[in-house]
Amino acid sequence: MTSGPEQAGGPGASAILGDHAPKHVRTGRSLPFNDTRHLQAHQFLVDEAYLLDAQHYTEWLDTLTEDVHYFMPVRVTTALGAGFDTSPGMAHFDENKYSLSRRVARFQTEHAWTEDPPSRLRHHITNVRTFACDDDAHLIVESAELLFRSRGDVNEAALVSCGREDLLRLTDQGWKLARRTIYVDESVLRMQNLAVFL
């Protein structure tokens, strides 16, 4: 069983920046919940959610590999059997480490009006499943995420529901995120902007 960038609509098929991304895919069934690798991957996601909620973005960048690919394709509604549910060549995010670091740097300037005042964020992570890869230094991690975002005192709060497939890599500094593909559950996003990270 394989998934990830090789599947239809994945980063390998439609991402502009995806050529550099690691191509590791899952092997076998999901790991037991008491497997040490699963527990470490789950802790990584929970710790990452804290950093994003607290908007400690510089620290979050340190949890990414240098060749990370961060990808969120545009979802489309198609007939059963069409074989795809994302729009080829279109993405909300198609980013590497450099572009992500530029976004973080912008938050620290006076020009980041979409996050000034900053949003109140809560990343809810659940349904975590972990899969071994073709080498021991990588794991595929699936999760479901619900992002709650509130800005100011007048605007209504917004929600984004999505599924994520991550590739984690074991480094000398512990596990790091090497690839993230985000499959949002709406074709039309109801959030005013996507200045935050999922």
TrEMBL record:
UniProt region (Disordered), positions on chain: 1-21
Give the Gene3D superfamilies listed for this entry: 3.10.450.50
Which is a GO BP term held by this UniProt record? 3-phenylpropionate catabolic process
List UniProt keywords, sorted A-Z. Answer: Dioxygenase, Oxidoreductase
Pfam families recorded:
Ring_hydroxyl_B
Query: Oxidoreductase: present as a keyword of the record?
Result: yes
Taxonomically, the superkingdom here is Bacteria
Instruction: Supply one GO molecular-function term.
Output: dioxygenase activity
Q: InterPro entries in the record, alphabetically?
A: NTF2-like_dom_sf (IPR032710), Rng_hydr_dOase-bsu (IPR000391)
Give the CDD domains listed for this entry: ring_hydroxylating_dioxygenases_beta (cd00667)
* Entry annotated with the keyword Oxidoreductase: yes
The family line of this record is:
Belongs to the bacterial ring-hydroxylating dioxygenase beta subunit family.
User: Which protein are we looking at?
Assistant: 3-phenylpropionate dioxygenase
Q: What is the lineage of its organism?
A: Bacteria, Bacillati, Actinomycetota, Actinomycetes, Mycobacteriales
